[in-house]
Amino acid sequence: MKEQVRVLGIDDAPFRFNEEKVPVIGALMRGPNYLEAVLATEVTVDGDDANQAIERMVIASRYKDQIRLVMMDGVTLGGFNVVDIGSLHERTGLPFATITRDRPDLDAIRSALQKHFEDWQERMEVITRQPIHMIDTDFSPIFATFIGVDNATFEEMVRQSTMRGAIPEPLRVAHLIATAWVKGESHGRA
Predict the structure, then answer these.
(1) Which CATH number covers residue 16?
(2) Whole domain around residue 122: which residue ranges?
(3) Do 127 and 109 form a contact (C-beta atoms < 8 A)?
(4) Sequence-ordered list of residues with C-beta below 8 angstroms from that of 10, at least 6 positions apart, any chain
(5) DSSP code of residue 101
(6) Closest to 59 (Cα-Cα) out of 76, 43, 41
(7) d(CA 134, CA 143)
(8) What pLDDT score was predicted for residue 1?
(9) Residue-wise pLDDT tens digits, 101-152
């Protein structure tokens, strides 16, 4: 695989559930240590517009043809605004992935969805559509779903985009920018 591959990391900003919208930030990194661009959009808290917002942000970017992987911090933005990475892959032609530090607790997710959403079954179906893979890193394992790229290539892209710890740099940087966007200063773990 080519060094200095461009990876777009996407994370949402901190929010309160009484807010209507939440900012979503994309950090386009070339290799593990060069921030090439910052993209921004917003989604409705607990809404159903995450796919449209991410698609618009990626398609409108002048960097779209250079992106080799889009990685999301989890499968939801702004609470339970679920992202369908399969649909995004089909519509943009780009590989997509979700990454978390911890294995998703699907029973807890199902319970929360049932409690708060009439369309909980549809949201849960999207959340469980892609298989969860445990990826070993030098620090600790991460849990990922991905589409549009094979397992070996995906693992290599994660390794190449991670400087230290387990979380790839594009996600870490997107998290820092998103937090500063809302709080005025970055803090917390991606």
Answers:
(1) 3.30.2170.10
(2) 6-183
(3) yes
(4) 24, 25, 26, 27, 54, 70, 71, 72, 73, 77, 171, 174
(5) S
(6) 41
(7) 5
(8) 46
(9) 999 999 999 999 999 999 999 999 999 999 999 998 888 899 999 999 999 9
Q: How many residues does the chain have?
A: 190
Helix, strand or coil, per DSSP, at residue 38: strand
The stretches of 128-168 forming alpha helices (DSSP H) are 151-160
More confident residue, 189 or 122: 122
Q: How far apart are CA 41 and CA 70, in angstroms?
A: 15
Kindly report the pTM of this predicted structure. Answer: 0.94
Do 1 and 63 meet the contact criterion of CB atoms below 8 Å apart? no
> How many domains, the chain?
1
DSSP 8-state assignment for residue 75: S
In a domain, 103, yes or no: yes
CA distance 177 to 69: 19
Query: What is the Cα–Cα distance from 63 to 101, expressed in whole angstroms?
Result: 28
Q: Which structure tokens are listed for 85?
A: 């990475």
d(CA 122, CA 112): 14
Specify the amino acid at residue 23: P
